[in-house]
Design a protein that fits this description.
It contains 17 helices and eleven strands. By secondary structure, the protein is α+β, with helices and mostly antiparallel strands. Helices cover 52% and strands 9% of the residues. The relative contact order is 0.16. A hairpin with a 2-residue loop joins strand 5 and strand 6. The strands form four sheets. It has a five-stranded mixed beta sheet.
Amino acid sequence: MDVFTVLSICLSCLILLFLWNRSYTKGKLPPGPTPLPIVGNIFQINTNNISKSLIKLAEDYGPVFTVYFGMKPTVVLHGYEAVKEALIDQREEFSGRGSFPMFDKMTQGLGIVFSSGEIWKKTRRFTLMVLRNMGVGKKTVEDRIQEEALCLVEALKKTNASPCDPTFLLACAPCNVMCSIIFQSRFEYSDEKLLTMINYIHENLRISSTSWIQLYNAFPFLIHYLPGSHNTLFKNVANQEKFILEKIREHQESLDLNNPRDFIDYFLIKMEKEKHNKQSEFTMDNLITTIWDVFSAGIDTMSTTLRYGLLLLLKHPEVTGKVREEIDRVVGKHRSPCMQDRSHMPYTDAVVHEIQRYIDLIPNSLPHAVTQDVKFREYLIPKGTAILTSLTSVLRDDKEFPNPEQFDPGHFLDESGNFKKSDYFMAFSAGKRVCVGEGLARMELFLLLTTILQHFTLKPLLDPKDIDTTPVVNGLGSIPPFYELCFIPV
């Protein structure tokens, strides 16, 4: 039997399997565009901007529809009502993690971000407990962020008001905050290890947001064995895990079971307590993956938001001016901003929220999955089905945010100029899978941005009207374009 015949038989079997699967689920899943055998709807979706494609499909099929990324069906939830109904009203049923082959390959179902079931529940619960013990949401971590913010100010002063790319420096502060929680240490901004870690994190997000990785996730059985950027991602993560393991080994040598210093110590103590439990989720592999999850997600999202935020402030100097006026009035020049100031700074608080809303950092969140057969509206979604929640459709809802394509802090202010909360603000997602570091991220954003604006005037190299804020990549994350600016001390 020649190769052509074997391939033909295999292809025919795959097509028959696909058609059977479609027939089996027909009448249960929501409607959607007709998929092609094997490739599904991949040609109907722009992998460079999935959100835009989903908006168009929602116009034809409504707020709940099905698309096929390859042979697997994915139910898309579009708009606030559908997303809220799933992630909040039926939070338990929609709390699974959908398949993400690129990262599933690396994490092996461990950690927090890409895990499900008992591993996810116990690891997440433990992580939240440790973060609280380490002072997240309290004065302890606030003091650390304030100290790191001043280190950032000193580093920015060394640019001597010359044009600079802020990417690296804006990542240093959140990186050191995270290092203090996980490793009980920080790095000087000139440290090569710090530079290497940050480069890995930025490159991983950029690669993960490309259309190539979208293709990998749709056809992992094929793309995995081809040359491409996924191999760079695997290599980067392996190097990150090697660094993490070195830190863990250092902690093991000096561990005091009665005096945990940081996240690693807490986890190692938990491992020791459960060492006779063969079913324990607290293993060395899970520790490495959990640290990688928390470390990468915490630094990547924060540094990208800061970088995008400064670009928007350069584009809108009138907004920057109002924030600086509020900082001068409430904080002054002789002390660091603190979290208590936020309640007296409604405009600044609105600007921070509007930055997050506008940049739409993780447009479609990460895929969820239903943990059991779920009746959702008039549909029956089988257990394990992937769920894609369009956060873009919530953050850009024109009923809640008039002119949503405009950057306007007024979206979070009432008629009296007071800060106005919105249930549509789902920048951290919602429900059971809401970002585990939300409290820390909110603290960092407010304190770092206000400290930068307290000490510097932001000077663009272009006329503000010529500044382009369109993301250069819009996949897993929205990545801002490259830019330079001058930090002018005040």
